[in-house]
Amino acid sequence: MRIRRSVRLMLLALLVSVIPASSHAAVFISVGYAPPPLPMYMQPLCPQPGLMWVPGYWAYGPYGYYWVPGEWVPAPYVGALWTPGYWGWSTGLYVWHPGYWGRTVGYYGGVNYGFGYFGIGFVGGMWRGGVFNYNTAVMRVDTRYIHNTYRDEAIVNRYTVARGSHVAYNGGPGGIRYAPNREELAAERGRHMGPTSFQTERMNAAMRDRSSYFSVNHGRPRTMAESRPNTGNYGQRGGRGNFGAQSRPGFQAQPQQQQYRQQQQRYRPQQQRYRPQQQQYRPQQQYRPQQQYRPQQQSRPQGRPRPQARPEDRGGPRNDHGRG
Q1: How many domains does the chain have?
Q2: Which domain holds residue 139?
Q3: What is the band of 13 on the pLDDT scale with cuts at 50, 70, 90?
Q4: Is 254 part of a structural domain of the chain?
Q5: pLDDT, tens digit, 9 for 90 and up, residues 169-198
Q6: Pairing state of beta strands 27-31 and 18-20?
């Protein structure tokens, strides 16, 4: 067992190489064999506005390929769009190109992740006036709480590369044949940010879960998509979503955790403002001045005893002793 483990670690060290990416400070991972096909699953309902769909994908860990479930996550800033990562064939190895957030969707190898990501761009929705509108032709949303929706089925055909394909990589034997266009290359060279802390936490949790690995689930992960969004203290159901710093030229997006702390600080003064109103009303309920009227009720001037007549004032014979 120890020999097998040491051999596996040696092979992992030879197959996996980490190279810093200058575009958004991420890492590239190269593996000697292709990733498994993408599984089929149903997208959970989006429960509130302001959430963006991140499709599931095969990542690589200590025990081979493992599945990172798809999930709804908060947009890190107004106008943000997610470009999924993809596996690409290069000089005999399968290289992982990480996903990123940007103003436009870049190149992701033509991989058909579904739910708006059919190989080219993103057709699951668009930003209008600081609010994200969902295309219900390809996105599942809870219309009881989300009203900013539209339906466009024709756009799906124009942005699909490999219809019905479950191949998870571009190029190489059996891979998808699609080269990036001019707009996708411009988006990749533009300024963008990597995965948020919520996405990183989900990826790390999947890497620690042995059931997520292909060697265990054989291409059928136990959790293909998260039923509940990973939002922390984000927003309230039915609201438009507060993104902290609004979009500004030059792309200055604040981290999500700082944005949510600002939201909590904004909401706390509203709760504290109502407390003085409750405290000011208590003297009216107690009305203590009425209790100070009791001494007047206890004073009874009519019941006082009358003064008794002195002896000299009483009637009867007087003593005239000593008088001549």
Answers
A1: 1
A2: 2-269
A3: very low
A4: yes
A5: 999 999 999 999 999 999 999 989 999 999
A6: antiparallel
